[in-house]
Design goal:
This protein has about 650 residues and is α+β, with helices and mostly antiparallel strands. The protein contains 24 helices and 22 strands. The C terminus is likely disordered.
């Protein structure tokens, strides 16, 4: 909670205890200590009014009022005193001063009513925050409560907390996977929707990674454990989000600044009202009005307006495969006007394949592939796997070095060799073939040996089947869409044209992508969508960096502000819609909070409203703001994905192209 509120809540993120989180029951109103004490104070108030009005026992009524005051004040006075000891003031300070002032003026019942209503407010805030945080940690419940492992050749049931790397899990059809691992035996399908938000199952075979909470399909699997339950995908998502909740968006910082500066200003104004009013009129009247002003200008609703919204929204997003790292990222995502895509692995499937090999006179196809394969065997470039897949045997290469943005150099069979983009290597007689390949959306790779051009390899990474649909949807919603790629202009424009993108920036190095993103930000804010690793400079330069397919990838999660745990681009418009709606709720809460203060202060100065009435209006408004903030967690857009059959059909068509 914000400092400006000054309420007695713990702002620190509690240590993540997986076992405790999994066993923790649903949060109920009676579990909140502030609400329990508020209920006691309320009962005492009813008794006090009954003793005073019905039984005509003023002494007994006064004792009951004092008891209600003490019980209600116990929810905020201790925290206020601790903060004052640290030279911090907040709303609790205002309420404490108002209660003490009311007592000194002989209005114990007013002080008791204030303490009761404010304790209810404190309890409701704590309930809202606890429930939304619990909603995030409920992700951990998606893992099973028991796992089956192989021990000495026998299957043994164990608690998931006992699993250690190297253990072999036996996962039967329909069972959930207890923690992250690597498939060692078995073929099946996996439902990863709990992590990625994608409804379609994925194939699972030996060598594939699996993640905690995934549901096994129709075949038994043996999985080697690679992470403990304390460090698996589900636990890391919760840990990262909870840690990043301290990163505040500009509206939250604005609310904090207003609340933090408003409290001391209120104290000064109230003191002036009491002093000047006492000099010009009845002292008791103006001192009482000054106390009412203290409460009327309380910014607690303002201070809670953003945090409760952020926590509720982030928890909901996590359940739909969207990892948002704090309020700043969420708010910025709701304000961007431009969406910039990296090409490889984002708009494309990141499964490039060789679609053509052209050799010059005197060279053969096998020679071109042999030299290229020898160099690419030492490379981690995405195109390397496609070229190596065409070879049955590899030649040795020596002194292989990468020339950033251009290609590779080295020695093959004792001769200097190069592989790289046209322009760095002159295409010569293959210029026409290079242009034709690029016009077809393929990347042209030229191969040279001993200073002589050998040939060209055309490699193409197919467009994701949903890419064009997503681009159309973004444009329809008013976003400017751009594509950034290191490929040649012709290649980039060919693929972008198939996706429906006209704003294309090609031939870019990593530093160029960063510069282009900074330029795009001038059009109202930009989000960069990439793989979270190679695009790190551009992700950092954007208002919001989104990493695609980040599940299980530490680097991708750390490099981005937002991580889409799955690979389906159709979740991007949903994420942007969700962020826009959440930002609108933030603005609603801030506006309502300021409006309440603006209306109550003059009414308090004029004596129209008394202390209890002002407190009641404040707390009702705060309940409304909390409920509105919690609503952000229920605003996830309806799933617009195509049917599973349509998606599977599209995938099969691309696989056979």
């Amino acid at each position: 909670m914000a400092d400006g509120c000054g309420c007695d809540h713990d702002d620190d993120v509690e240590p993540l205890e997986v076992a405790d989180a999994q066993q923790q029951p649903q949060v109920r109103l009676r579990d909140i200590s502030e609400l329990r004490r508020a209920a006691v104070a309320g009962v005492l108030l009813i008794i006090a009014f009954a003793l005073e009005g019905l039984a005509h026992l003023p002494i007994a009524a006064l004792i009951a009022f004092w008891a209600a005051l003490v019980v209600g004040a116990s929810t905020f006075v201790p925290g206020t005193l601790r903060r004052l000891a640290n030279r911090k003031i907040g709303v609790g300070t205002l309420m404490t001063i108002a209660a003490v002032g009311a007592v000194l003026l002989g209005a114990v019942e007013e002080a008791a009513m204030l303490a009761f209503l404010y304790s209810v407010s404190e309890g409701l805030e704590e309930y809202a925050l606890t429930r939304t945080r619990r909603g995030l940690r409920a992700l951990l419940d998606l893992a099973p409560k028991q796992a089956t492992v192989l021990r000495d050749g026998a299957q043994v049931g164990v608690d998931p907390g006992e699993l250690r790397p190297g253990d072999i899990l036996v996962v039967r059809p329909g069972e959930k996977i207890a923690t992250d691992g690597l498939i060692r035996a078995g073929i099946s399908t996996l439902d990863n929707s709990v992590l990625t938000g994608e409804s379609l199952p994925v194939e699972a075979a030996p060598g594939h990674d699996v993640f905690a909470g995934a549901i096994n399909g129709n075949g038994p699997l043996e999985v080697e454990v690679t992470r403990t339950v304390e460090d698996n995908s589900l636990a890391r998502i919760v840990r990262i989000v909870e840690a990043e909740q301290s990163r505040k968006g500009s509206h939250q910082r604005l609310a904090d600044r207003i609340a933090g500066r408003l409290v001391p200003a209120i104290l000064v104004v109230a003191a002036l009202i009491a002093i000047v009013g006492s000099l010009l009129g009845e002292p008791l009247v103006w001192i009482e009005r000054a106390l009412v002003v203290l409460v009327a200008a309380s910014p607690c609703a303002l201070a809670i307006s953003i945090p409760v919204t952020v926590i509720a929204a982030i928890g909901s997003a996590s359940k739909h495969g969207l990892l948002v790292k704090g309020g700043a990222a969420l708010e910025s995502l709701g304000a961007v006007k431009t969406v910039a895509f990296d090409k490889t692995g984002t708009l494309t499937r990141n499964q490039p394949r060789v679609v053509g090999v052209v050799s010059v006179s005197g060279a053969t196809r096998e020679q071109v592939l042999d030299v290229a394969g020898a160099l690419e065997a030492r490379s981690e470039h995405p195109l390397a796997a496609a070229i190596l897949a065409e070879l049955q045997a590899l030649s040795d290469a020596a002194n292989v070095q990468a020339v950033t943005g251009n290609g590779l150099i080295g020695e093959v069979d004792g001769r200097p060799a190069r592989l790289g983009r046209p322009g760095w290597i002159e295409p010569g007689e293959l210029a026409g073939a290079v242009e034709a390949a690029q016009a077809d959306g393929a990347t042209a790779v030229l191969v040279e040996s001993d200073g002589q051009l050998l040939g060209m390899i055309a490699v193409r990474d197919e467009l994701r089947p949903e890419a064009a649909e997503v681009v159309r949807e973004l444009i329809r919603r008013g976003y400017r869409v751009a594509m950034l790629t290191g490929d040649a202009e012709a290649t980039g424009r060919a693929l972008a044209g198939r996706a429906g993108i006209t704003d294309v920036h090609a031939g870019l190095r990593p530093e160029d992508k960063s510069r282009i993103v900074q330029e795009l930000r001038s059009h109202g804010g930009a989000v960069m969508v990439g793989d979270g690793v190679n695009d790190a400079p551009a992700l950092a330069a954007a208002d919001v960096g989104i990493a695609m397919g980040a599940v299980g990838t530490d680097v991708a999660i750390e490099a981005s502000d937002v991580a889409m745990m799955g690979n389906d681009l159709r979740h991007l418009p949903q994420a942007l819609d969700f962020a826009r709606r959440t930002r609108a709720i933030m603005l609603q809460n801030v506006g309502l909070s300021l409006a309440i203060i603006a209306v109550l202060i003059p009414l308090a100065v004029l004596g129209v409203l008394g202390l209890a009435a002002v407190v009641l209006v404040h707390e009702v408004a705060e309940v409304v703001i909390i409920l509105n903030g919690v609503r952000a967690g229920r605003q996830w857009p309806a799933d617009r994905q195509s049917s599973g059959a349509q998606q599977a059909s599209a995938d099969r068509q691309l696989a056979h192209q």
